[in-house]
Request: fold
Amino acid sequence: MHRIRSRSSLLLIDAGGPVKHIQGKRKHSMKKKRGCIVTVAVFCLLSMFSCSKEKDTPAPTPPGTTPPVTNVPDFDIDNLNDTYAGIAPFEFRFKWGPYNTHDPSIVKAGEYYYSYSTDAGYGITVPAGIQVRKSKDLIDWTFVGFAFNGLPQKGKEFITQRGGAPFESLWAPYIMKVGGEYRLYYSLSSPSPRLSVIGLATSSSPEGPWVEKDLVVTSLNNSSIQTNAIDPSVVVDEFGDHWFYYGSAWDGIYVLKLNAATGLAATPGDKGRRIAQRGFTGNSINGNIEGPEVIYNPELDKYFMFISYDWLETKYNVRVGRADSPEGPFYDFNGKNLNDPEDNLPMILAPYQFMGHSGWQGTSHPAVFRADDGQYFMAHQGRPGQDKYFMVLHIRKIHWTEGGWPVVSPERYAGVTQSTVAREELAGDWERIVLRYNVVPGYANEQFSPDFQVATSLKLNADGTLNNDAGSTWTYNAPWLELKWSDGRTEKVHVERGRDWEKKKASTLLFTGLDDKGIAVWGKKL
Reply:
C-alpha cells in the first residue's frame, strides 16, 4: 500500500498579523477505498508570494564566506529561551544561534561541530541554500551562512524538465566527511506529488565553497511504487562500503548502495528497496515515516536506524531498530521487522512536558553522531508548546542500555560536569515521564495535537520504596537505577547530572532508560 505525502514551505497570513513561514512537509492524502489520489490544495499560497520574495528577501551569504559577526552579545546559557520572535527576522541571522533550525545534520571538523539544516524560519521566508552553523561545545552556536547561493542547478533542472516547479528551499541535508572531502547531500522537492531529488555537492572545507556533483536518487509524480526522494542519510559499514537511506511517506524508508569513491549510486538509476514502513489502523496509515538516520556502533557490532514518525509540527517522535547488516533487516525491541506493516518500539523521544512548562513538540528528525571521546549525541529540532512555529536546535546525550538499545537524556546537553552520583543523592522528589503513545491515523489534519507525555510526581524514599507504595522499590548500582513497581513492571534507567532547562537550574539529577516492555522512561530531580 502507498502512503503519499511530500514536503512544502507555506506562507500563512493571519488577518491583521504577521506573515508566518512554516517549514512543513505537506501530505498528499489518498482515499484508498476509491483508489484515487486527492492532492491537498495548498500550493497557491506559494505562488501568491513568489513575485515579492526576490525583492523583499536579503541576499544570502555567498558560499564559502563567513561574514563578520557583529552585535552578538557574550554567550549566557540562561539567555537561551524557548521563543525568539525578537531576533527571528533574517537581518538578525547572526544572532540566531540554535534558533530557526530544522532537520539538522552534524559533522565534526577540527575544533568545531558544524550543523547543516533546512531553509526554515519563524515568521520569515529564508533564502534557499541550507543553513550552516558551528559550535565548539554543542551549546553556543554561531550562524555561518548558507552552503549554496540558491537552488543547485542539477536538482532544479530535473524538476523543471519534468513539468514541475521546485520549491525555493532545500530540506533535510546530510553531511559527512570521506577522506579530505566533505559531502553534502541535499533534498529538493516540488508541489507535484513525489517529484523530488536528492543531490550531492562536495567541498574541501565544511564552510565551502560547494561544487554540485550529480543527483543520487530521484522520484517522479507517476504511478510507480517508490518512496519520496528526500531525507538522506549514509552509513559506512565495517568493510568501508557506503549505504544510502532515504524516504518520506509513500512507500516508507529505502536503502541502496553507493559508490564509495563518488558518493553516488553504485548502480546509476537505482532507487533501492524498502526496509521500513508504518503500521495501519484498518485501511488508514498510522502516520508518516521519514528522516532515517543510520549509524554503526562498533562496540555493539550493530547498525541502528533512527526513524521519524508522525506529523512534524506536533506528534513527531523517534523510533529505533537495529540490524547485523546495513542492508537489514532491522528489528525492534520486540524482535519485529521494521519492514512489516506495524509500528515499532522503542520510541526514545516524543513530545513531552515537564511541570510548569509549555513542553516541547515536533521533537524528531534526528541526527546521530559520536564525539571524539566516544560519547554519542542526538540532534533534532524542538517546537515549544506555546507556539509550534518556533524551531530550536536540541542536542541530547545518548546512553546505551545493558540490552544494547539507545536512550536519550530527558534534557538538552549543557556540558554539566559529571561525577558519580551517590545513592543518598537519589532520595527525594522527582518528576517522571513515561513515553507512551496514542495512535492517531493520518497526517497534519488529524494529528493536530502533540499528545504531550506529561510529567507526574515520583518520590524515591530513603528506605528504598517508591511513593507511598511499600510494594514498589528501588535499588541502585551506579549509574543504573532500577525501579520495581508493585504491578510487576521494572524500569532500568541511567542516572547522570544535567541541566534543568525548564527552571534554568545549572545542575540536577536526570535519568533515562527503558522498562521491560521497551517503553522509555525519564526522570528529573526537583
Observations:
- The longest strand covers residues 490-500.
- Residues 44-56 form the longest helix (13 residues).
